[in-house]
Amino acid sequence: MTGTAGFIGFHLAERLASRGDEVVGLDNINDYYDQRVKYGRLEFSGIDSKAVEYGRTIQSSKYPGYRFIKLNLEDSEGIDNLFRTEKFDAVCNLAAQAGVRYSLTNPGAYISSNIVGFVNLLEACRHHGVGNLCYASSSSVYGLNELQPFSVHHNVDHPVSLYAASKKSNELMAHTYSHLFGIPTTGLRFFTVYGPWGRPDMALFLFTKAALEGRPIDVFNYGNMQRDFTYIDDIVEGIVRVIDHPARPNPDWSAMAPDPGSSSAPYRVYNIGNNQPVRLMDYIAAIEIALGTTIEKNMLPIQPGDVPSTYADVADLVRDLGYKPETSVQEGVDRFIAWYREFFNA
Q: For all residues of the chain together, what is the average pLDDT?
């Protein structure tokens, strides 16, 4: 698993390790956001943060089957050596340079991590007999599409950020390796993930921090935004089902009418979203309820790279994996606020 010091990767590592899987977690622990949160996640999973150094594998004190290594995806030799040593049955790639807005000012970081790093993983899977690769894509790939709910069967050739373009590129690269080398690959388009141990650069974290410090929050597009907010536990359940069920070829796939969400190769793409878009102002109201306060708001225009609305069609996820996210926004926000107060003593 890559990205295990990250938000989703941490939760997935906890889930897999707690059910008894043998997990090797990888992360480069970069400084894109507060490293205290990243090291805090590792410590929670029994990884001694003081022992972390590049290339060293550390055994968890909490889970006998969980080990962690600090490594860059761009380090092709290091990745190849790791795969040769461990002989992985399955790989889940959740490591990436995240963030839509950051990609406007730091494009090189996205090419290095999301493109170069991903091809290194594909090559390692190819040469070391990995039987299943799943990887994080993003709802941002839908870009200028306005037909909702967003379906994996829709064309997604009009991204509005380099981050989105890099994720779409991952899907194309994965298909190539599924077609040429028979590697089962599944791309997961996550929709606005939130919950405890979340990323400090995302809205829920920023809004909560500002509110507790008595500062106003920035509300873009004057609040006229909708997001298919998806609770972290629901995301993790979807990923686990994909890990347990490698992609298979679609016997009905036709080159005369190609379906973007599947292939004649063992390749699939799924949306994982709550399937219930929520107005941004209602999301903020849920935070206010959880905190018991009213938050002052700066109403601002939409930012470059943002889309006004997201809404996931999860029919394929339900059909193939028998699963649909269901955690309500208020329940999820309440859990995040409780975690935030404890972690930051706020």
A: 95
pTM above 0.90, yes or no: yes
135 token code pair: 């990887």
Question: Rounded to whole angstroms, how far apart are CA atoms 26 and 24?
Answer: 7
What angle, rounded to 10 degrees, do the helices at 232-244 and 7-18 form?
Answer: 60
> Is the Cα dihedral 149, 151, 155, 160 positive or negative?
positive
Evaluated on CA atoms 57, 26, 42, 213, the torsion sign reads: positive
Give the sign of the dihedral formed by CA 193, CA 69, CA 107, CA 268.
negative
Q: Which of 163, 231, 270, 283 is catalytic?
A: 163
In angstroms, rounded to a whole number, what is the distance separating the alpha carbons of residues 251 and 242?
Answer: 19
pLDDT bin (cut points 50, 70, 90) of residue 304 is: confident
For residue 226 the two structure tokens come to: 């909708």
Q: Give me the mean pLDDT over the 88-92 stretch.
A: 98
Verify whether residue 270 is a known catalytic residue: no
